[in-house]
Description:
The structure is a single chain. By secondary structure, the chain is an alpha/beta fold. It has helices at residues 9-18, 32-44, 147-152, 170-181, 197-200, 202-205, and strands at 52-56, 61-65, 71-76, 79-80, 109-117, 123-128, 133-137, 160-162, 166-168, 186-190. It has a single domain (9-205), classed as L,D-transpeptidase catalytic domain-like, CATH 2.40.440. Strands 3-2-1-10-5-6-7-9 form an 8-stranded mixed beta sheet, sandwiched between helices.
Amino acid sequence: MNRRYAFTAMAAVCVLATMPLAAVVLPQDTSATARQLVRWATETGDHQGLPFAVIDKPAARIHVFSARGQWLGSAPVLLGAALGDRSAPDIGQRPLSQIRPEERTTPAGRFVTEPGRNLKGDDIIWIDYEAAVSLHRVRSVNAAERRQQRLASKGAQDKRISYGCVNAPEAFYNQFIAPLFGQARGVIYVLPDTEPFATIFIAASAYP
Length: 208
């Protein structure tokens, strides 16, 4: 997966020649960094005509867009319990019991997604298959984690609970995520929470 991505001017021109731009309207509480990334992705055609989403880790929210760059909806999400923008080596090959608390991160970057299934047969969206990081409906594996209550909380820190996967509200997932990303590839941008934005999104950081 391409986690650090600088889109060239020539490639941008090719995409823009085939894809009309759409005016993007976002919720008022969308962070400035998320707005900058969306503006860059849509105006340069970085999402390559695919539906895309922006996961704003500092705000613990996801914003979903159509292939034309139209904002469709936003929702709170649960994220990896630990701060950090990189996945630990070989984490995708280890059982959950061997993942240390500090390794439970949701990696930042640009990812081309794939629809998939977990071990129970539930449909999921692979963000980073090698690191076993996916986007799926919120599941109450352990009642003590209070995942539904965490989703409803206004505090972003309350939403840090998973081993790295992104948990979205079931109704939102069914309405906006499954139809777009559950049938074919898409693009997901995950904003960093520890590393500088410019380190992860080189081209977007310089975009006005």
